[in-house]
Structures are given as structure tokens and as C-alpha cells.
Amino acid sequence: MVNIVLVEPEIPANTGNIARTCAATRSRLHLVRPLGFDISDRAVKRAGLDYWHMVDITVYEDLGEFLELHGSEDLWLMTTKAPRTYTEAKFRDGCWLVFGKETAGLPEAMRERYRERCLRIPMRAGARSLNLANSAAIVCYEALRQQGFPELTGAGSMAEGYMT
Q1: What pLDDT is recorded for position 162?
Q2: pLDDT for the residue 154
Q3: Residue 162: left (phi > 0), alpha (psi -120 to 50), or beta?
Q4: Which candidate, 26, 18, 23, places its Cα nearest to that of 151?
Q5: Residue 60: which CATH number?
Q6: Distance between CA atoms of 132 and 21, rounded to whole angstroms?
Q7: Predicted local confidence at residue 161, as pLDDT
Q8: CA gap 51, 54 in Å, rounded
């Protein structure tokens, strides 16, 4: 199982896409306020997020509350400023993948506190960053791959089809 944490997400479509990844993978979604959008039942229905009921979601008032509750957990911070790539991490069951807001990333103090837990996704020089939802999907699936895709149907069946 994977926990995906979005710290102060700003773009509703990104969070919606990440929620869909969580629904498909049985991952848990954690949102740290302030949010740049409304996640009330009415707003979710209006947006047509028909999979929202499949998402195990927790909302925290601020980063302090989240860190107080989970700061000693198996946290992995995703940042373009990390020296190591996500493929160098050993993701365990229940790991926490932490992503910052779209315009600013994670706070510097948090990156310093967890310096050895910071990871990046490789990309070409000069590219600022990948889309948040794409980044979350990439790292989530790597974590699940390392865990053997627990409780996911069809794991391996597509690859087997290509092997024949």
C-alpha cells in the first residue's frame, strides 16, 4: 500500500487525476491545507469525479499537523532539487510519497529536515518539472512494482501477453 501526500495542492485537475490513480491502485490520498479548490461532496459531484468514493482520503489543516502525526513514518519527498532518483529508493508497504504544491514545490525547511529522503524524477536539462499528477503516478507505480503490485488484479498479465 502507498500513501500519496499533496502539500497545499493548487490545481483541482491534478488532484482529481491523482485521486483517480489512488482509486485504481488502492493507495491512500492525504491532502494538506490550504487547498486551492473545494472538495465538498457538492463540488466533487459537479466535477464528475465518479471514482471519488473509491478514494481513502484524509485532510490535514496544515503541514505541522501532518508532520506531527506522520513525521517519523517512511516518508519520501519528491523534489526536482534532490540528488537521488526515485529508482534508488526502496519503497516499503505503507510508504509515504510527499509532493509539494505546483507553483513552489515543498518548503525548504522540510526538504532540509528530510534531506536523505528527497528523490527526483530524471528529465532533460532545462525542463522545469513534470506535471504533478504524472509525477505522482510514476512514483506510485514504482513503489507498487517494488511491492509486487499487492491486491491489484492483472498484475503481470499485460506483460505476459507481450512476452508470447
Answers
A1: 41
A2: 66
A3: alpha
A4: 26
A5: 3.40.1280.10
A6: 12
A7: 43
A8: 5
Question: Cβ(115)–Cβ(76) under 8 Å?
Answer: no
At residue 48, the pLDDT reads 66
Q: Is 42 helix (H, G, I), strand (E, B) or coil?
A: helix
Please identify every stretch of the chain with a pLDDT value under 50, giving residue numbers as ranges: 155-164
Strand (E) positions, the chain? 2-7, 28-32, 56-60, 75-78, 84-85, 95-99, 118-120
- Predicted structure pTM score: 0.90
Whole-angstrom distance, CA of residue 16 vs CA of residue 133: 8
What whole-number percentage of the chain has pLDDT above 90?
77
Q: Look at the chain and report how many structural domains it folds into.
A: 1
149 contacts 131 by C-beta, under 8 angstroms: no
Full residue range of the structural domain in which residue 78 is found: 2-163
| Alpha carbon distance 35, 27 (integer Å) | 20
